[in-house]
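In this supplementary section we document a worked example of the pipeline. Step one takes a protein sequence of length 355 as its only input; no multiple sequence alignment statistics are reported here. Step two produces a three-dimensional model, which step three serialises into structure tokens for compact storage. The input and output of this example are shown verbatim.
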Amino acid sequence: MINPRSAVLRMAPYSPPSGGREGKLRLDFNENTVGCSPSVIEALTRYLTADHLSIYPEYAAAIHDLAAFFRVQRDEFTLTNGTDEAIQLLVNTFLDDGAEVLMMKPSYAMYKFYSQLAGATVREIDYPSDLQFPLDVFLAAIQPSTRAILISNPNNPTGGSIGLDAISQILKKAPQAVVLIDEAYFEFCGITALPWVRSHGLGDYPNLFVSRTFSKVYGMAAMRCGCLFSSAENIQWVRKAQSPYSVNALAAVAARAAVQDTEYVKQYVAEVLQSREDVCRGLDELGIRYFPSQANFVLMYLGDRAIPIRDALRERGVLVRDRSYEIPGCVRVTLGTRSSTFRFLADLERLWTQS
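The serialised model returned by step three reads:
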């Protein structure tokens, strides 16, 4: 019998419940609930020829357009196969076996997944009961042995965010560590450390990395496309460790088209922010506790009814995500259009008020 590496033996498997979702109201994975911009479909349709599909991906045009959109230099970022590859690249490029990685708990599962897969030592800081980021506790946990810090801002699944002052303190406390600020939900909160990459380079924050994704607001989760930003000096090492064709050509074409339709994104964000207000107001009226969110989802506390209500919503064609395995009694609901929000609230009210 052939055995895997010890790191693989030790790690827990990650198995997202991704089957049987088609045709339902998908409020479980923080996706765009109406899909991508029509301009993305048009660009993909034009690109879909036998000739184009026979050629290995070429990224020059996408790198040019995305650099202009994000206002960075072309050597200050790399295209990635979703945020997942960005995390994996960071870990594989800068961490040795046994290196210490610091992260919050709960947070995005792939931070721990790729760190453990690389054989790193994971240290997790628990969120307090109010699910607010414990800055003082986190800063105190940073040690000279810390080699990587992975932060989701806003955090998934809690929904809270930290400000730029807190990010600055973390970066300065850990000059020996690579620090990733994962901004998957940036468009819904507006807090970003990206300007520090493009304006400082190897100045104030040489250890800063920022990631963005096209899976959320842009409605392109199936394309698996993202970006990892840092100084040109850092990105040259990342690209050295990256597979030359990890991002497929269709994803690159779609990303170019997506960033050009700024009005589509603006309108969708406005709809989500209004839905966030509607959901919070509806939960208040039902007497259901929830946690303040700056993302496109809200984490609510349903207590011992969390699993039964999740299952009953599924039977009605509404999918929400159980998080009670890491935050007891909690369920996360994705925010989309107001119509999807009203449908969710109506079904939830019927279930919640049942004796």
